[in-house]
Specification:
single chain; alpha+beta; 5-stranded mixed β-sheet; two-stranded antiparallel sheet; 4 helices; 31% helix; 25% strand
Length: 154
Amino acid sequence: MQGTYKTRRPQRRDADGVERFDTKIAVLLRDDLQPWQGLNVCAFLAGALAAAHPDLLGEPYEDADATPYLAMFRQPVLVFASSKEVLTAAHTRAVARELPIAIFTSDLFATGNDRDNRAAVRAVSRDALDLVGLAVHAGRNVVDKVLKGARMHP
């Protein structure tokens, strides 16, 4: 199911040669999370997108003293918030469109490693997942439709 959406490199540049993106990177967080939980979920989900779409990463950074730094996403990561119901609907729309998505469930707050995380998700049917976040990268209009009802995170 997942993986049918093909990532595209930006094909447009403005007059100054700056890339303009036809795609959107979005993280949707449930609006009832504690601040530390939201930050943790966002970090995990952004990491999943970076792993699945390495072409989203730019070149490594370097300061004026030649200290090297890791590469980051080439385009903004937009963070949204919503109720549990809107998040569930976004998940349903993303799955129906066969978009590759990353998810984070409330059960993952009680685990401490990747193996246990995957087992916790595997133990619950798709419709019963207690989602607290999801991340998606797709065309701008597609992401807007998937996230219908969500708002920018405060």
